[in-house]
Design brief:
By secondary structure, the protein is mainly alpha-helical. The protein has helices spanning 2-21, 28-52, 60-78, 82-104, 109-128, 131-134, 150-172, 175-185, 187-192, 197-223, 228-231, 234-247, 253-273, 277-291, 295-307, and strands at residues 140-141, 225-226. Helix 3 (60-78) packs antiparallel against helix 4 (82-104), helix 3 crosses helix 12 (234-247) and helix 7 runs antiparallel to helix 10 (197-223).
Length: 320
């Protein structure tokens, strides 16, 4: 156990140093990739919070879009600085998630996924049909944050990405881990034990949406514009779901690993194979999921355990 903790601490330290030091060695293109990686880490880690409570949703693009449009509209209409706009977008997404959650989270499985997918399309239609307020299909154009400098923009998005990861660590070290696990494994049994499953699911839904809205709140200030098709792109929901699955569901590191690998590999395939990259991307994803159902983190854990066996105390049987 002590060796495992030491390895984990060393890994976190190395990753932290890389996140803080490597950006100073990169140009604008490399920094842009890091901003995208950080954004997807935030989305995938926030979606992973929902899986801890056993909820399968496709509504993350909706909360990202609410955060983006709330932040952009606050800046456009009221001149609100982007940090406050980001906070407003995050709070707006969380409030929407809490309200919708009381209705949608009574559904389960594929029905919940379809309901939250419909939410994304409904939000996009609303934005398109009130052009006097949202600028409709034309979208909103903003001044670049930090005057276009990408290094400080990266550190802001890195901070956003770290928050849902820390929230996952907090959940796993608190009683919420047991409560969410019981809801995920058998919601009916959890209710019989006196757990208010609806309240806890709504809390997980709102917490997850808060982080998605926070990432969305910064994005239009970085890109300098937002349009409904980009802000409420269902592809964001799909990627937020695929990344933690590839990295390893229910883990802290899984969403981070999945987001880094898929963002960088996807960019390499796009620049190398052009339009054919989606076919290669899809085939690779199917093969990885079939061969490594517990994700890349699970694969790494098995590899480590095979090479560094856990020592057995004298007189105690090895029951692994």
């Amino acid at each position: 156990m002590r060796r495992r903790v030491t390895v984990a601490t060393t890994g976190v330290a190395v990753l932290g140093l890389a996140c803080l030091g490597v950006p100073f060695l990169l140009g604008n293109y490399g920094l842009h990739l890091l901003v995208l990686v950080s954004m997807y880490v935030a989305l995938s880690a926030s979606w992973n919070i929902l899986t801890l409570a056993g909820q399968l949703t496709l509504g993350h693009a909706g909360f990202f879009g609410v955060g983006a449009y709330t932040s952009a509209l606050l800046a456009l209409r009221l001149g609100v600085p982007f940090p406050l706009g980001m906070a407003g977008g995050a709070v707006g997404a969380a409030i929407l998630a809490a309200g919708v959650g009381f209705i949608c989270l009574r559904l389960r499985g594929v029905y919940l996924a379809i309901a939250t997918l419909s939410l994304v399309e409904a939000l996009k239609i609303v934005v398109l049909n009130v052009p006097d307020f949202t600028e409709g299909p034309i979208g909103i154009t903003l001044s670049p944050v930090f005057r276009g400098a990408r290094l400080p923009a990266y550190f802001v998005m890195l901070g956003v990405a770290i928050l849902p990861v820390l929230a996952t660590v907090w959940i796993k070290r608190s009683k919420l881990h047991v409560i969410f696990g019981s809801i995920r494994e058998d919601e009916g049994a959890a209710q019989m034990l006196g757990i208010n499953t609806t309240a806890y699911k709504v809390f997980a839904f709102a917490l997850s949406a808060f982080f998605a809205g926070l990432a969305g709140g910064f994005y239009p200030h970085y890109i300098t514009y937002t349009v409904p098709d980009t802000a409420f792109n269902i592809g964001l929901s799909i990627e937020a779901q695929i990344m933690p699955i590839l990295g390893g569901l229910y883990t802290v590191a899984g969403p981070v690993v999945g987001a880094v690998v898929l963002t960088l590999v996807g960019e390499y395939l796009r620049t190398t194979f052009g339009a054919a990259n989606l076919l290669i991307y899809g085939i690779a994803m199917v093969l990885v999921i079939l061969w490594f159902p517990d994700g890349l983190v699970g694969l790494g854990r098995r590899w480590w355990q095979a090479r560094v066996p856990v020592p057995v105390r004298e007189g105690v049987a090895d029951v692994r």
